[in-house]
Amino acid sequence: MNEISSIVTVIKPDLRAARKVFTRAHICAAARQLFVENGYVATTMEQIGKLAGAPRSTLYTHFSDKEEILDAIADEYIKKLGEILACVPCPRPTRTEIRAWISELAQFIRDDRMPTILFNGIGSGLDMPRAVKRIGESVMGVLASRLPAFAIAITEGPEQSAYRAYAQVAVRELSLCCQTYAIVGDDALGGHYLDVAADIFHRFTRDFAGDKVSAA
Hints:
The protein has helices at 3-38, 45-52, 56-62, 66-85, 95-111, 113-122, 130-144, 148-153, 160-184, 188-207. By secondary structure, the protein is mostly helical.
């Protein structure tokens, strides 16, 4: 095999891989738009393929169903969100430190609101797709690796149920306040929502960091 043939042999697989990544990303972008606009349940694979400009054969070559597409969207979101969550000060951050971190998280959500709106909307139902559950587990896992209160919430024990309930409420309110900030913008009202989120989050990380729930 001459040098030119060797180069061509290397380039062809690389081009195929790049084309596959591009096609999957294009399909996911179309699906994400439709999931937000029409709702996850109402969106069909046919609609996704049409918006993405992908023939049925191409669509089903990359994804077997829309839940698999949602999984792919979740994978990217979990990676980006995890990088922000991992920056939370630890192990017992002050309210000021938490407020600064929440500002960064809120800005991340504001810059790309669609995934957060999508997964929160889907997660409001009782029958959640596995992607939404994975995001919730990922959020709790990252926070648990940094903050004792969240670590207790995911560790089996006599106090786990109570801690987990408080932890889930803290995360839910954090998400809601950040979304509201993203909608109203960086003004007085948006800032107040982030202040509220910081108060709730700080109280949980402070009062539940290994103390009895009854003493909180």
